[in-house]
Write a structure and sequence with these properties.
The complex is a heterodimer of chains A (about 375) and B (about 325).
Chain A (H helix, E strand, L loop, with lengths): L43 H26 L14 H10 L5 E5 L3 H6 L4 H8 L23 E5 L6 H13 L6 E6 L6 H12 L4 E7 L2 E2 L2 E2 H4 L14 E6 L3 H18 L3 E6 L17 H8 L3 H11 L5 H24 L24
Parallel strand pairs in A: 1-2, 1-3, 3-4, 4-8, 7-8
Antiparallel strand pairs in A: 5-6
Chain B lengths: L1 E4 H15 L3 E5 L15 H5 L4 E3 L4 H13 L3 E5 L10 H8 L2 H4 L9 E5 L15 H5 L5 E3 L4 H13 L4 E5 L7 E4 L13 E4 L4 E5 L1 H16 L4 E5 L2 E3 L3 H11 L2 E4 L8 H13 L8 E3 L10 H7 L3 H11 L4
Parallel strand pairs in B: 2-3, 2-4, 4-5, 5-7, 6-7, 10-11, 10-13, 13-14
Antiparallel strand pairs in B: 1-8, 6-12, 9-11
Helix pairs in contact in B: 1-7, 3-4, 8-12, 9-10
Classes of the chains: A alpha/beta (about 375), B alpha/beta (about 325).
The complex binds thiamine diphosphate and magnesium ion (MG).
């Protein structure tokens, strides 16, 4: 019997063909933790500090965006806005000498791991006072002395490097855990799968965390990857978890449990954190692949607003203290902009510096 | 002649070829629903549908290889890389497979595939997004490498590339996509792969440059003309096969040559062309051949260092002054 032939179609379709105006949320968020901060082992000061850190990330980037739009610096600018609970919950859960590595959406990660607002802003401006001496820019914030190994611009490129940092920690028997963050888009790179296999095989103390923010550039997660991301772990016999990344306590609780387990068992973990990016992929993104309504759904559960309400509801601090913190951070960011503007560009000689640790093997230098 | 942007010229080439041959399809990151990261493929999804305009995950190795397999099995894929800097991940498929399959299997199969996308730097995008890969691919047998500088070249050469029965590396530039130029309206306009074009005639010095560097060289030539130095500007358009005959003919006239190459200095187009010139035209040279390339360091982010890093018209003028003993 002749089958009716349908035209072959390969990639799944998205916005243009489906959704009929309904809000098609790109990531489903699991429930947040019900525990209060003291149940989680966090002090009042910790919670205030968490709020400060999240607010710093937010204002740093909002101001950076303004400066970018004023043409103060060029290059890419991938904003982490919306995802701050992930970085913040994580640094509180990890030990200070545990290692962190991430992709190019890295400003928040730098700021929670000791890149100062000044060093960060100066890096965006390409100044010699930047955390990477102006050599890296937005995509390559780093603070190696604080075990923040930096942001990387090739999607998936840093995943095996995270495994390698964990390898060295196991080799040195130093009990450090590595947390390697990647986007949902990076899940599709072969490097992840090679690294997961070797990590389980070699028992590397590494947590691979997918920050599923719903999109890989203009492509919704459901259009670029199959199944549930966290279930990829099954194929490698690896432990896994999926949790809400719009709430710092939830991130903290889960990352604490997971890092304790990795440290104790000496085995890797694969984690999917569901979150959302409010801004475009980079600065030139028209954002036509999602609706305003969808974005607003997530902004309603903003992690910073949530934390602010918590501080007030639990009477940890009063509104005037919150205002004071916010004003302080605002000043810190504005000072960082002044600092970046006033700092020098690197000397011409710097072009040839930092290529090599030893003898600089530079061909045909003119 | 019609005035088109570079991106439009490329789109026309793809569109015309796709409309003539059902076996041609295009795939890559964001090429379909997003209309292309640089809007090169804008409108093609609407015209050709989901079967032939295909969004891929960020899996360069995978989709490049799927392209190679599909090409072996009778299709004619156009694989777009968001930039050639990301095609590094697909290097195994391009270098170990696309370029070698036919030879390894004693000629039993062909791999008619075009890998295309922007090459080299596009402003301050840092070390991993700024490398010119044309010379690197040219080192491998089995591939043609095209890096045109103007919309007309782009259209004619891309059509030829798509019709070619072997793998072609086709390079563009993020910074040239908006560049306008006259494009032939000739029906079925193609340009033979491997033919340089003398784009400016002059008697004093031969300057060879393609891709983005062609425009730098052109600026330098205009500047030098004010000082009565007449540059003969040759755009090879194709890195491989390299049209050395056209260059030699010019060098025999001008007796001097500067090659501008966007790659790092070691073993690039500049060194290859320089070698061939000394072998074929040694007795005609009045000065050693000079080159302008990137320095042998990675791209810095900082604007100041980046500007120092990227070849500019002044460097070309200095090199011309060196070969004409004007300094
Ligand atoms: C190998 C490679 N391919 C493509 C790109 C271009 N690119 C940069 S970011 C990106 C999307 C990545 O999305 P995701 O991993 O979800 O991270 P997010 O941007 O959401 O943080 C793409 C396609 C790249 N930088 N590297
Ligand atoms: Mg994403």
């Amino acid at each position: 019997m002749a089958k009716e032939k349908k035209e072959a179609i390969f990639a799944p379709t998205g916005l243009k063909n489906s959704n009929n105006g309904k809000i098609d949320k790109s990531v489903d968020l699991p429930d947040v933790t019900k525990k209060k901060h003291d149940d989680l082992g966090l002090s009042d000061e910790d919670v205030v500090k968490m709020f400060e850190l999240m607010y710093l990330q937010r204002r740093f980037e909002e101001r950076a965006m303004q400066m970018y739009q004023k043409g103060k610096f060029g290059g890419f600018l991938h904003l982490y806005i919306g995802q701050e609970a992930v970085s913040t919950g994580t640094v509180f859960a990890l030990n200070d000498d545990d290692d962190i590595i991430t992709a190019y959406r890295d400003h928040g990660w730098g700021l929670v791991r000791g890149v100062t607002a000044k060093e960060g802003m100066a890096e965006l401006y390409g100044k010699v006072t930047g955390c990477s001496k102006g050599k890296g820019g937005s995509m390559h914030f780093a603070k190696a002395e604080n075990h923040f190994w930096g942001g990387y611009g090739i999607v998936g490129g840093h995943i095996p490097i995270g495994g390698g940092i964990a390898f060295a920690n196991k080799y040195k028997e130093n009990d450090r855990v590595t947390a390697c963050f990647l986007g949902d888009g990076a899940v599709d790179q072969g490097s992840l799968h090679e690294t997961l296999n070797m990590s389980q095989l070699w028992k590397l103390p590494c947590i691979y965390v997918v920050e599923n923010n719903g999109y890989s550039m203009g492509t919704a997660a459901s259009r670029h990857t199959v199944g549930e991301i966290h279930e990829r772990a099954k194929g490698y016999g690896m432990k896994s978890a999926v949790f809400n990344g719009m709430d710092a306590f939830t991130v903290y609780e889960n990352m604490k449990e997971i890092s304790d387990d990795v440290r104790k068992e000496g085995l890797p973990y694969f984690v999917e954190v569901r979150t959302y990016r409010y801004r475009g992929h980079s600065m030139s993104d028209p954002g036509t692949y999602r609706t305003k309504e969808e974005l607003q759904e997530y902004q309603k559960i903003d992690p910073i607003e949530r934390m602010k309400s918590y501080l007030l509801d639990e009477k940890i601090i009063k509104q005037d203290k919150i205002d004071e913190i916010q004003d302080g951070i605002e000043d810190e960011v504005l000072e960082a902009i002044d600092f970046a503007e006033e700092s020098d560009f690197p000397d011409d000689d710097a072009l040839y510096e930092d290529m090599f640790t030893g003898t600089p093997y530079i061909h045909d230098k003119q | 002649m019609a005035e088109l942007q570079f991106r439009e010229a490329i789109r026309e080439a793809i569109d015309e070829e796709m409309s003539q041959d059902e076996n041609i399809f295009i795939m890559g990151e964001e090429v379909a629903e997003y209309d292309g990261a640089y809007k090169v493929t804008e409108g093609l999804l609407d015209k050709y549908g989901l079967k032939r305009v295909i969004d891929t995950p960020i899996s360069e190795l995978g989709f490049a290889g799927i392209g190679v397999g599909a090409a072996m099995n009778g299709l004619r894929p156009i694989v777009e890389f968001m930039t050639w800097n990301f095609a590094v991940l697909a290097a195994d498929q391009i270098l170990n497979h696309a370029s070698k399959v036919k030879y390894m299997l004693g000629g039993q199969v062909s791999v008619p595939i075009v890998f295309r996308g922007p090459n080299a730097s596009a402003g301050q995008l840092g070390a991993t997004h700024s490398v010119a890969y044309d010379s690197m691919y040219a080192q491998f047998p089995g591939l043609a490498v095209i890096y045109p500088s103007e919309p007309d070249d782009a259209k004619g050469l891309l059509k030829s590339a798509i019709r070619n029965d072997d793998p072609v590396i086709f390079m563009e530039s993020e910074q040239m996509y908006g560049l306008k130029g006259e494009v032939s309206e000739e029906d079925d306009y193609t340009i033979e792969i491997g033919k340089a074009k003398v784009k400016r005639e002059g008697d004093d010095v031969t300057v060879v440059a393609t891709g983005k560097m062609y425009h730098i060289a052109k600026q330098a030539a205009n500047q030098l003309a004010k000082d009565d130095v007449e540059v003969e500007l040759i755009d090879p358009r194709t890195i491989k096969p390299f049209d050395i005959e056209t260059v030699i003919k010019s060098v025999k006239k001008t007796n001097r040559c500067v090659i501008v190459d966007e790659a790092h200095p070691f073993g690039g187009m500049a060194s290859e062309a320089g070698f061939l010139i000394q072998r074929e035209a040694f007795d005609y040279l009045d000065a050693p051949v000079q080159r302008v390339t990137l320095p042998d360091v990675s791209a810095p982010f900082s604007k100041k260092l980046f500007d120092l890093w990227l070849p500019d018209a002044k460097q070309v003028i200095d090199a011309v002054n060196a070969v004409t003993y004007r300094n």
